[in-house]
Amino acid sequence: MPDIASILVFPFFLLFIRLGAAIMIFPGYSDPSVNMRVRLIITLVISLIMFPVVQDQLPTLPTETSLFVQYILVEIAIGIMFAISARLFMSAIN
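User: That's the sequence. What structure does it adopt?
Assistant: Structure tokens below.
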């Protein structure tokens, strides 16, 4: 029987990493006037809301450490790409 870490915690962690990386660079949220704790709470709430929707598409806990690190780095890169594209869009509008 699979444990709770592979079914719930790791996929939630991946989602939280992606959204956290995006919100730290997103226009509006990345301003120094927005407290770091507020950004963390926003990321946590959005992750909790989105997790049931995307849970089936997220991978389970890998057995190899290299794959674990690869998942984390890919999620950070995707989050940063989302935020950079939003910044470029806002810059183009401006």
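The two ends are 54 Å apart (CA to CA).
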